[in-house]
């Protein structure tokens, strides 16, 4: 796959392909969307597609890296704006709740992809695990700053609450799901700080 040299911007066609794939894969699923559809909606030629992505799997991996980048930017911003670890944990939950209530919400892109790529040795599945490991580690670090004891268990609990909210948010009333999720995270952080 061609990548832009450090310090240079990726080509407009590559950005358009990735933006198109990101929108369609998230809205409709990965396996249900063919390369021809992405090429057509991105308004590029087949040759241009294959110059940037040797195959669909390369595009899927780029899509997941893009979603990871967006998630990481949001979480890094929440942490930067909230120097106290407990406040950062609540701010991250707030951004997740905001996402759940956003138009077109269809759950977690990584959980959705995991359902389509269940084989643990598949590169797409490994990309999903890498994202989840980063998220878990980020939460664990913040929770350990609140209180070291049982911080790993608390991070697992946080991730499970988040996963449940992401799944429920596209099935039930997103506002109610978000409220329930935020209550759960507030309780988790409060309980963790007192243990």
From TrEMBL:
UniProt keyword annotation of Cell cycle present: no
Transcription recorded as keyword: yes
DNA-binding annotation, residue ranges on this chain: 34-53
InterPro entries per record: Homeodomain-like_sf, HTH_TetR, Tet_transcr_reg_TetR-rel_C_sf
Tree of life domain: Bacteria
Transmembrane segments: none
Domain HTH tetR-type: 11-71
Record Gene3D superfamilies: Tetracycline Repressor, domain 2 (1.10.357.10)
GO molecular function: DNA binding
Keyword tags: DNA-binding, Transcription, Transcription regulation
Protein's name in the database: TetR family transcriptional regulator
Naturally occurring in which organism (per UniProt): Winogradskya consettensis
